[in-house]
Model the fold of this input.
Amino acid sequence: MRSYVGNHQVVNQVEFEELAFGFDERPAGLDVDLFRGPLRPETADERQAREDAARDILADLRAMGEDGDEIATWDALYADALTHTVPLLRSADRAGRCGGTGEAA
Done:
């Protein structure tokens, strides 16, 4: 008999538990909060430092991509897309403060 969780076939007990209960850790890769912004409020200084670091890392990824690193190219595209998003909680908070329009007053 075969066991499946979602569309993944389970081959051992450990894999079953991981698939059934999810993962506590994020996969290795880009720090989403660095490019998108944290889900918690941040000060103006924290935001400026985060955005400066994100710009530097994005520039490095783009340069690595231009040198032929395909993974860096994809990471740069993903990171750049994240910089154009707003976390849902921050967006909802902004909408509540501005009368539901989602735009700053």
